[in-house]
Amino acid sequence: MEALERPLPKPSSEDYAAARLLEALVEARLALEFLNRGLVRNAAGKAFQAWRALLAALLKLELDKLAQKAKTEEERKWLMERAVPRIPTTKMVRLSQKLEEVGHVGISAWTSVALDLHDYQYNGPDPDMAQSKFQDREEAAYAVLGLVREVAKRAEELKQAVKWDKELEQALTALQEEL
Fold first, then answer.
1. Which of 53, 83, 90, 102 makes the best surface tag, with the fewest CB within 10 Å?
2. Dihedral through CA 128, CA 136, CA 24, CA 91, nearest 10?
C-alpha cells in the first residue's frame, strides 16, 4: 500500500510506466478489499483509479506510436505533456480509442465500464438509471470484479514491456490470489 504514497517518477522517465502499473495493481487490490467489506461505492472508485493508472502506463509505453499517429504538433505535445501524466477523465474514451488504434483491443469497452463505475461512486445505485448505469449494488460489484480481473490480465501481459521487478510481481500475485 505504501507504493501509492511514493512520488511518481517523471512521465519522461523509463520507470514511469512500471510505477503506474504498480499503482494499478495496488488500487485494484484495494477495490477487492472494499468489496469484501461491502463498500461497493468505494470499491467502484478504486477500480476506476486502477483502470486510470493502467491507461497511464499504456499511454507511456505506446507514446512513440501515438505521437506518430497524431495529426498535429499540438496533439503530439498534448499527449506528452497532459495526457500521459494526467489522464483527464473527460478524455479517457478518446485516449482508449487511440490505444486501440495501436493494438490494445477491447480497451475502449473496459474504459466505458470504468467511467460507469466512476459515476456509480458518486451517485450510488439508481433504479431509474438516470445518474448511474447500475440499478443496484450487485450490478456495480459485478462490474468492479470484471474491471479488476481485466487490470490483472493486462498487467500480466505487460511483463515484457516494463521494467518488471519483485514489487510488481508481488503486487500481481497478491491481486491474482484475491481474485
1. 90
2. 0
CATH of domain 14-178: 1.20.120
Rounded to 10 degrees, what is the CA torsion of 135, 138, 143, 145?
Answer: 170
Whole-angstrom Cα distance, residue 86 to residue 102?
Answer: 20
CA distance 21 to 39: 24
Residue 60 has pLDDT above 70, yes or no: yes
Which 8-state DSSP code applies to residue 164? -
**pLDDT value of residue 1:** 64
Tell me the pLDDT tens digit for each residue of 80-138: 899 999 999 999 999 999 999 999 999 999 999 999 999 999 999 988 888 889 999 99
CB 22 within 8 A of CB 172: no
Per-domain residue ranges of the chain: 14-178
State pLDDT tens for residues 147-170: 999 999 999 999 999 999 999 999
Euclidean distance between CA atoms 71 and 59, whole angstroms: 17
